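Internal QA ticket QA-208
Title: Verify multi-chain structure generation after dependency bump
Assignee: T.L.

Test input:
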Amino acid sequence: MYKFPEGFFWGAATSGVQSEGSKNQVNKSIWNHWFQIEPERFSGGIGPEVVCDTYSRFKEDVALMKEINFNSFRTSIQWARLIKNFETGEVCDDAVRFYNEYIDELLKNGIEPIINLYHFDMPIELQERYGGFESKKVAELFALFSRKAFELFGDRVKYWTTFNEPIVPVEGGYLYDFHYPNKKDPKLAVQVAYNIILAHAKSVTEYRKLNLSGQIGVVLNLTPSYPRSQSEEDLKAAYMADLFFNRSFLDPMLKGEFPADLCEALKIHGLTPNIESEELNEIKSAKVDFLGVNYYVPRRVKAKETPDDKFYNPEFYFDYHINPEGRFNPYRDNNEIHPVALYDIAKNVQENYGNIPWYLAEIGIAMDLESEGDVKEDNLIDDSFRTELMKEHLIQLHRAIEEGSNCFGVHQWTFIDCWSWLNSFKRRYGFYRLDLATGERVKKKHAIWFSEVAKNNEF
Ligand code: FCB
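Actual output:
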């Protein structure tokens, strides 16, 4: 038996854009805009307008959470839904009503809400007027939006996070072309990353000013870098990948400082962002109470074989490598399955980041409709593949907890199959299937397993 600490969080995560739909939304995000101008880039030509329609169906959905024994749940408040006027912070009444009712419904059912403030969803108006996080002005406006959210809901919401995977909009929007505005500009990418860290710090500062009784943190996608071999060159490749993709956000957000080797590398390539010294003080003093970690796949790297002529992206320092002994998920681009990574992440947080309280904010095991198959005679969908993998991951997490890791919960990505950035509904991750034609939610077998784990706090 694997027993988890008392009060352990069991639940799922989603986000505003991916679950709510855009009904009655006055402002729009970059996702609505991008889908309008380039629908062909979205799998199946499906955009974010309807998705799970949680906006209308949240009561039914909270009942489904309760049915499978969630004691906690993360979603995000959409900036472009809550705020009517981004410059003054004037809010939309209907959005306030919606989020109030949603939060109250969760609480009434014994489900602790964890509310995130930015899940890739820049309001299009701010993207067009200021270039989104290209501008420090938008870091200030984000702090204003955060403050409004804390004031409106902070009496009941005890767990806040500023950003989900803050590096992803940098990668997608400014390095590799998978988020709007689809620029490929490493200099701008570094400035955007820095401005996001600043926005995070400003949001934490606003939270502290209000003296509320809850906690605030951030959700980072930590992807351990494993070298191909123990050669000096491969180890250096893994070190640099870790520096760019993990420590770039972990160090400033948890320790209040930027890794010296990262600053040095940026300087060599002429990529140092515009920084003011009072901003560094703000970043330093904005301490988080907890960390959320998203984990999907390990990063395998090796020494660069052919050097790039200049810095286009962090792959200047390494090449990707496929583990010849790896196991792979046939349902998701052959992603490597490596449960031990979770143990490694936990130990890293324990040993190098002061053993801060953290929770597994997303672990997602992708399947597609075909591999999950049709609804069976027992009215369930058979996704046992997911359960087997989840067990293996949780065993590794449990091992780290036994060794003192301060982990306080597990959230699966996701609750009801939701819409994903560009992939739309191609990959399925939910405890419940979403029938796109009818909007119906259909339970999967894995949900039954999970509900027992959540109830007994062990498996
Ligand atoms: C994570 C994101 C989440 C979802 C899953 C599949 O990286 O946080 O929004 O798209 O991937």
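Spot checks passed. Residues 15, 164-165, 221, 294, 362, 364, 413, 420-421 surround beta-D-fucopyranose (CB under 6 Å).
Status: verified.
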